[in-house]
Amino acid sequence: MKITSKILYITIFAATTLSCQNILDEKPDRSLVVPTKLSELQAMLDNTNQVMNREAGLPELAADHVALPESLFPQVLVEEVNSHFWSEDILESMEAGEWGLAYSQIFYANIVLKELERFNESEKASADWRNVKGSALFYRAYAYFTLARTYALPYPATGAEGIVGLPLRTAPEVTNDISRSDLASTFNLIVNDLNEASTLLFDRAAYPSRPSKWAAFGMLSRVHLYMGNYAQVIESSNQCLALGNTLMDYRDYEGATGMPFSLFNEETIFYSEMVTYLYQLFWGSTISESFYAKYSDGDLRRDLFFNQREDRIEFVGSYSGTMPLFSGIAVDEVILNRAEAYAWLGDEAAAIADLNSLLEKRFDDSFTPIEAEKDVISRVLEEREKQLLLRGLRWGDIKRLNSLENQGIVITREREGVMHELTPGSNRYAFPIPDIEITQSGIPQNPR
Predict the structure, then answer these.
(1) What sign does the CA torsion over 144, 149, 153, 157 have?
(2) What is the DSSP letter of 165?
(3) Of 29, 71, 77, residue with least CA distance to 57
């Protein structure tokens, strides 16, 4: 639900040094005591439901899949409607919103990383110590990528050094220097953290809610795709899928009702979910009839992903198994990342092979493998859009496809008879930073 202002802007984490006596003087958790034992540090990162395994949900409303009827506007939060129409002000309040959620994750990760350095050399050599450090690096990278995808302009083919990025914090203490880095530096931190995490983490985690080497490689696949580093996408996808590449056979779920996919199913590499909003409670995660029509006869996703009501088509295919929308890393995404990278690099046979490996598990017995395709990249992008529906990826996909590959995707909405349009290159692809952050830290706001 709505994120309150208790977890706020980036400088909150050293609030005890501030003189103002208000909500900004609080730490993310009033009961927070800095842990010292390895088990306590692991427990801090295991705060999955409250902090660590949640991420921004508003970008999904800004993208082109959720159908939000005008009749629902008075019943939902103002930020839901404002995100849907890419308004100049999203929150219309002095709250930190999803910006604050991500920076709280970074704060916890930085505490863990700092405290780990207090251990002696013998303790640092243990597999458990290395795994906790790798987990903290993974969470920090994951949070910064969520922030970059939401609050920064898309990563360009060249010139990322000239685009404003995020305030970067690699320690829990806050200095007087609160500034925004450039986008290149932001992504260097993300990639470096994930690369180091991949050398420290266990191959597979005890629970999918914990990071692993499997997850680090999967996340590198996602990040490199966003950056247009296609050779690195293939490399990291191969490393990820070597640790686990099982796909569910949707034929095993044929005829299932309700929400067919269970929590922590066999495709889940790392579990994360988007913040849930009121539109999901009142209306469900509804898509348009035109998008639903893209699923052909024989495609089992047509029945497993959707519940056809009298007045709408509701998405029920989340890998969370419940209402929250799964946004973590899964085997199907990594396969599609690799297929797209192959396609952009001109290896059409490899791209088609990846598509076939996925689609044979998504269609009924009528499926015929693809042998040739006139426009392989278009087919890959279509299958990506259909398979990864409402996974928190589409907003970033639109940004990168317009920026790196000139796909010319335009989003249109109608409100009170007026058409609204979001075109490639618009500044509104970067969400506005919450006013409380701008007021307290003085960092520059994103132009809208």
Answers:
(1) positive
(2) -
(3) 77
**What number of helices (H) and strands (E) belong to the chain?**
17, 9
Residue 411: CB atoms within 10 A of its CB come to 19
Q: What is the SS3 assignment for 48?
A: helix
**Cα separations in angstroms, 106 against 7, 63, 147, 427:** 12, 26, 11, 26
Query: What pLDDT does 20 receive?
Result: 31
The pLDDT value recorded for residue 36 is 78
Copy the structure tokens of residue 57: 């949900």
Amino acid letter, residue 98: E
Tell whether the model's pLDDT for residue 22 goes beyond 60. Answer: no
Amino acid at position 437, single letter: E
pLDDT of residue 329: 98
pLDDT per position as a tens digit, 42-60: 999 999 878 999 999 999 9
Q: Which of 34, 186, 215, 11 is nearest to 103 (CA)?
A: 11
Q: Is residue 269 within a helix (H) or strand (E), and if so which, with residue range?
A: strand 268-270
Instruction: Give phi and psi for 305, each to the nearest 5.
Output: -85, -20
Q: Average pLDDT, whole number, for the chain?
A: 91
Tell which residue, 62, 59, 80, has the closest CA to residue 412: 62
